[in-house]
Amino acid sequence: MVDSNLNNLKKHIFFEFLNLVGRAFVLVRYSDNVVLGNRGFTAEEKENGIILVFNSRMNF
Q1: What sign does the CA torsion over 10, 14, 17, 19 have?
Q2: What are the C-alpha distances in Å from 7 to residues 2, 45, 54?
Q3: What is the pLDDT of residue 60?
Q4: pLDDT on residue 2
Q5: Residue 1 pLDDT exceeds 80
Q6: What is residue 6's three-state secondary structure?
Q7: What is the 3-state secondary structure (H, E, C) of 32-45?
Q8: Cα 26 vs. chain centroid, distance in angstroms?
Q9: 7-59 pLDDT, tens digit each
């Protein structure tokens, strides 16, 4: 229950921020638990992470 509430809070904050400023940058660090579709992480991304950019025009 706590994990679900925390995930809902994070989702709510993300979309409030996105609606407020129009764009959000998310730095994703490598972990065995992180999945980036079928592509995975490159060697450089495993070292430095990858920045995902979201904007308010994207259809989630």
Answers
A1: negative
A2: 9, 25, 18
A3: 77
A4: 77
A5: no
A6: helix
A7: CCCCCCCCCCCHHH
A8: 5
A9: 999 999 999 999 999 999 999 999 999 988 898 899 999 999 999 999 989 98
34 to each of 3, 21, 29, 39, 46, how far by Cα in Å? 17, 26, 8, 12, 11
Enclosing H/E stretch for 51: strand 50-55
Q: How many distinct helices (H) and strands (E) make up the chain?
A: 2, 2
Q: Are 54 and 24 in contact (CB under 8 A)?
A: yes
What gap in Å lies between CA 13 and CA 37, rounded to an integer?
A: 24
pTM above 0.90, yes or no: no
Cβ contact 24:51 at 8 Å: no
